[in-house]
């Protein structure tokens, strides 16, 4: 079919690709500049113990505070950052900043819970242990207060490498969570060889959990799997109390989602914690 379409198609395709790579270069340059100019910020989403309602963690989620575009969500620039390798310095910055912020919350007596930082595949196969050690040391934060979120697909890219890296991080005392669990295709037998602490039930299974029996079955299976492997399990993207009740009924330990709070700028976290603890009374 390609042959039959002839040269016109080829020319058209090339032009399209050139245009794409020009856009890509532009984004890459902007990202690089944004990093230099320190335009990235972290927002923090509370993670809650479903039974006690205690805040048991804060997930750090990066945003780009662009001078013209405003607050740009990560889905708009993380893929380009990954493809260009800029995720490595960006990710290192996010880890340092999250550790520094968590230390500041502890020093203020506000919060004693791990901060969870997302780590992408590219960082995972580079010197992640050095970057992690430097972030902890730079913030004077003990390793138990840092959790790293790695997606299921990252772990499956190179299983043996993943087992070694997770083992190293685990021995440092860092906590480990598998993000977006259920969306990749992991062989379940590998799960027991990964020294992880927690599974995160992907938001895509939570959205329709009340109406779609398949989603409910998958969420239930992930929760049972976690229990049987003695792992913690957290549901992400919980928006309604009906979803929360359902997940709680399935035995889910922890949750995060708009029901409790959207990701918050660091300076709003104190306020949130005060309101949240008042709500419990
Ligand atoms: P993720 O790690 O799975 O994070 C969960 C995403 O779901 C976040 O989107 C969060 O704001 C959103 N979310 C949480 N609760 C709810 C809810 O109740 N309803 C809805 N509709 N959404 C909810 P966000 O902040 O846009 O981040 C998207 C993704 O970008 C993250 O998915 C993560 O994969 C990536 N990301 C964010 N920060 C970083 C980072 O520092 N490094 C890397 N490598 N990736 C990051
Ligand atoms: Mg995450
Ligand atoms: Mg996730
Ligand atoms: Mg997700």
From TrEMBL:
Coiled coil: none
Domain of life: Bacteria
Domain EAL: residue ranges: 24-277
The protein's name: PAS domain S-box-containing protein/diguanylate cyclase (GGDEF) domain-containing protein
Organism from which the protein derives: Chitinimonas taiwanensis DSM 18899
Covered residues, full protein: 406 to 686 of 686
């Amino acid at each position: 079919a390609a042959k039959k379409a002839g040269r016109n198609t080829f020319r058209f395709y090339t032009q399209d690709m050139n245009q794409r790579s020009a856009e890509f270069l532009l984004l890459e340059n902007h990202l690089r500049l944004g990093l230099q100019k320190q335009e990235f910020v972290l927002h923090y989403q509370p993670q809650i113990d479903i039974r006690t309602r205690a805040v048991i963690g804060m997930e750090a989620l990066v945003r780009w505070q662009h001078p013209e575009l405003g607050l740009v969500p990560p889905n708009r620039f993380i893929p380009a950052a990954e493809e260009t390798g800029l995720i490595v310095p960006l990710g290192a910055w996010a880890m340092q900043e999250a550790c520094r912020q968590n230390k500041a919350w502890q020093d203020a007596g506000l919060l004693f819970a791990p901060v969870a930082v997302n780590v992408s595949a590219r960082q995972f196969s580079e010197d992640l242990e050095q970057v992690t050690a430097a972030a902890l040391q730079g913030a004077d934060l003990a390793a138990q207060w840092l959790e790293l979120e790695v997606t299921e697909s990252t772990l499956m890219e190179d299983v043996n490498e993943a087992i070694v890296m997770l083992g190293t991080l685990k021995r440092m005392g860092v906590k480990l969570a598998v993000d977006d669990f259920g969306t990749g295709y992991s062989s379940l037998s590998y799960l027991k060889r990964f020294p992880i602490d927690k599974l995160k039930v992907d938001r895509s299974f939570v959205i329709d959990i009340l109406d779609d029996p398949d989603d409910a079955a998958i969420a239930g299976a992930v929760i049972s799997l976690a229990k049987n492997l003695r792992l913690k399990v957290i549901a992400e993207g919980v928006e309604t109390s009906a979803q929360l009740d359902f997940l709680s009924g399935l035995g889910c330990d922890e949750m995060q989602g708009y029901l409790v709070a959207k990701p918050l700028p660091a300076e709003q976290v104190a306020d949130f914690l005060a309101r949240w603890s008042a709500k419990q009374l």
